[in-house]
Specification:
By secondary structure, the protein is an all-alpha fold. The chain contains 23 helices and no strands. The model has no long low-confidence stretch (mean pLDDT 85).
Length: 459
């Protein structure tokens, strides 16, 4: 992975013991102490540095290992700056609010669960946040479900499925950006390759949710109308506001660099902003830094949906990427990951076994630690050299990281997403888990494709 060899030729048993203690400690700090992943990773780095010093290593040498890992993925840090700017631009121009407005018009009383899934998918893609989707649109659907005595577990399962489809496939999503950057591929190339497993999983989920609930009375579905009324009253809904989205799609299909495509989209959205409002430069700077803010009374239902974006919103993700990559570099520098990889080298003889090991690692970190960011970062750093050795394109690895990492987190009751969603929707994780079809269909399909070789590409 790096231009130099590990500083320690670590015995396999010692590497396994250090890794086990490290994962256990990280799991304890996140689950029992409720630490944010940043603090957990810093504590892990500190412990490993102390361990290296005890083994006679110099700090400067270990620091070079961390810097080497970070330097390979600095593009991700820059990428997230432009994601934050683009979200603000799409909000202020009305692009995302307009997409939401038309989306709320798709709700069908005959297929309530399917409507919940489809709309959550649409909103999830447009804002790139599964948790925000669940906390806003999801809460609305739970309220509608209670009104006509629908099965709330099925409702929550449909919402979670749609929200994490959107989180997985949106260029605005931090987990999508992390998965692409950790293996060193273009963001849109990653999203395009994910479609091989994600689209079939979405279609199968749509079929499943379309037949779970009989028709309900249309008059019970009044929450979407309130959302649409408030969106329209905000002055942000305009048909032409969808132009930046269309531009982004065209540039992505033409395989234009992700940052260049985002810059073009931001400029188009900024131009449209001045067609229906005239923000001064002071307000514009505030929105680009701190996120767009919907001002005025009477927007209680949509304020949280559209008040998003900005550079500041990306700091959480950027810092965790920096820390996670540094941790991965330190694990390599100390010889821990190379020793463990050598131990399973004979087993990893093909794409199927490599896919299974990546999936097992991602799921394992989610279950043990409950943190989707770490599941992506640790599994990505660990198995990238394996995919290189097998001649597999890194896009295969990034897809598996999302299929087994991002979408599995909401199925773990003590995970970050699981705890948040259960509290927001008022439905326990174990209740909605059987109906979150998309989440485990994504995992099943990535394993199936890994073993059969379908859609896997060589370097």
């Amino acid at each position: 992975m790096f231009a130099f060899k590990p500083l320690i030729d670590m015995p396999r048993k010692e590497a396994a013991a250090v890794a086990a203690v490290l994962v256990a400690a990280m799991g304890y700090s996140i689950i029992s102490l409720s630490w944010l992943p940043h603090m957990t990773i810093i504590a892990a780095i500190t412990a490993l540095v102390a361990y290296g010093l005890a083994r006679g290593l110099k700090y400067d040498d270990m620091q070079r290992g961390m810097i080497a890992a970070l330097s390979q993925s600095m593009g991700a840090v820059y990428l997230f700056f432009f994601i934050g700017l683009m979200v603000s631009a799409l909000m202020m121009s009305g692009s995302i609010p307009t997409l939401m407005y038309y989306g709320f018009g798709l709700i069908s009383p005959q297929y309530f669960y399917l409507s919940a899934f489809v709309l959550s998918s649409l909103i999830g893609i447009s804002i790139g946040s599964s948790l925000t989707t669940c906390a806003t649109v999801g809460v609305a659907f739970i309220g509608m479900g209670e009104a006509f005595h629908a099965d709330l577990a099925m409702t929550a399962g449909a919402v979670v499925s749609g929200a994490f489809f959107g989180d997985k496939m949106s260029p605005l999503s931090d987990t999508t950006g992390i998965s692409a950057s950790i293996v060193g591929i273009d963001l849109f190339e990653h999203i395009k390759n994910m479609a091989y497993t994600t689209v079939p999983a979405w279609l199968l989920t749509a079929l499943a949710t379309g037949w779970l609930l009989p028709a309900v009375a249309a008059e019970n579905l009044n929450s979407p109308a309130i959302f649409r009324q408030q969106l329209e009253a905000s002055g942000l809904v305009h048909a032409y506001a969808l132009i930046p989205f269309a531009l982004l799609v065209v540039l992505a299909v033409r395989r234009v660099n992700a940052i260049v495509a985002m810059l073009a989209t931001i400029l188009a959205a900024l131009a449209l902003t001045y067609l229906h409002s005239s923000p001064d430069l002071a307000k514009l700077g505030s929105w680009f830094y701190g996120g767009f803010k919907l001002e005025g009374d009477g927007f209680d239902r949509i304020a949280r949906l559209v008040s998003r974006g900005g550079l500041e919103s990306m700091f959480f993700t950027q810092t965790i990427v920096i820390l996670g990559l540094s941790l991965g570099g330190l694990l390599f520098t100390l010889g821990i990951i190379p020793s463990l990889l050598e131990g399973i080298r004979r087993f990893l003889t093909g794409a199927g076994r490599a896919t299974a090991c990546v999936a097992a690692t991602s799921v394992g970190v989610n279950v043990l630690i409950g943190e989707q960011y770490l599941s992506i970062l640790l599994a990505g750093e660990t198995f990238k050299p394996v995919y290189d050795k097998l001649g597999l394109h890194p896009r295969n690895l990034s897809r598996t990281l999302e299929d087994a990492g991002t979408v599995i987190n909401p199925l773990v009751p003590w995970s970050v997403c699981g705890v948040f969603i259960a509290q927001a929707l008022g439905v326990p994780v174990l209740d909605y888990l059987p109906y979150a079809f998309f989440c485990y269909l994504s995992l099943a399909l990535t394993l199936l494709f890994g073993w059969t070789g379908l859609t896997l590409s060589k370097k």
